[in-house]
Amino acid sequence: MTKQNIINNKQKTFYAMSTIVVGLLFSYFLFFGLTIFHTLERQRAENEIAKLEVEVSELEFSYLALKASINLDMARSLGFVDAPLAILAKEKKTDVVSLR
């Protein structure tokens, strides 16, 4: 091998190794940044969930309080009336058999 070929091989090796190192550094910082981003997103989501759980608890409490306050007198004062006895379904009795 000539001296020029050896220098060219060393340069190619150096450029290849440099490209690999730059690619690995880029990947490292990319994944590190994504990890931080996802961690912060998870914390934000957990805080939002905690706020919503408090709101749901308050709504459940007010629902139970309103449900406990409903009685027949209150319903009548709001305009509700007793439902008349209604027949919902009636069976028709026939002695006819047909094939269709």
How are helices and strands ordered from N to C? HH
Number of helices: 2
Number of domains: 1
Number of strands: 0
Mean pLDDT across residues: 89
| Largest pleated sheet | none
Structural class: mainly alpha
Question: What is the radius of gyration computed over CA atoms, rounded to a whole number of angstroms?
Answer: 39 Å
First-residue to last-residue Cα separation = 100 Å
- Beta-strand portion reads under 5%
Can you walk me through this structure?
Helix content is 73%, strand content 0%. With 100 residues, the chain is mainly α. The chain has one domain. The protein is elongated and about 110 Å long. The mean pLDDT is 89.
Give me some keywords for this one.
100 residues; mainly alpha; 0% strand
What's the short story on this structure?
By secondary structure, this protein is an all-alpha fold. 73% of the residues lie in helices and 0% in strands.
Question: What's the structural blueprint in terms of helices and strands?
Answer:
Blueprint: H1 3-69, H2 72-77
